[in-house]
Amino acid sequence: MAERLIAGGAFVKIVADNNTIGLASGVSYDEDWAVNPANVIGHLGPIAFDSQGYSCSITMQSFLPVDLQQNAGGRSLPGETDTVITDLLPTRQEIQDAGGKPREIETLQFIDILSGVILSQFKDVSIASNGVQVSPNSYITMNIRMVAI
Fold it and tell me: In the list 25, 30, 34, 84, which could disulfide-bond 53, CB 3.0-4.6 Å?
C-alpha cells in the first residue's frame, strides 16, 4: 500500500508539505458551513439559508511503523516515501516551546495517482489530536485528527 490509499477503487496519495505520507490506510474529512435558517415571523419555515461560519476536521488512519531508525541502519519504507504519520506529530516540548501552538502543515493534498488530479487540498492544517489503537492479531494503527482554516 505504501504511498497509496485505496479509496473506492481509486488510488490516492496523501501529500503533506510536498512529502508523501506512507502507510496510510484511510482518511476522511468533514467540512461544516454552519448553515442556519433565516426565519421570518408569520412565515411557516425558513425563507433562506445562510452560512455563518466554516470548520473543517480531517481524520487519517495509518499503520503505526516500528522505529525504523533503529532497524537495519535506517528507514526502508515500501513505495516512494520516507514520511510516516508519526513524523507529523509534535512532542509535548515542541508545543510548549511554541507557546501552546500546535504544529501546522502548510498544505495537505489528496491526489489521484492515475490522473494526477488534486481531489482535495487544505491550507494551514493543525494537528488537533492523535491516538493509537491495538487490536488482537492485527497491526497497531494510529488515528490523527487535524483541523483546517
Answer: 34
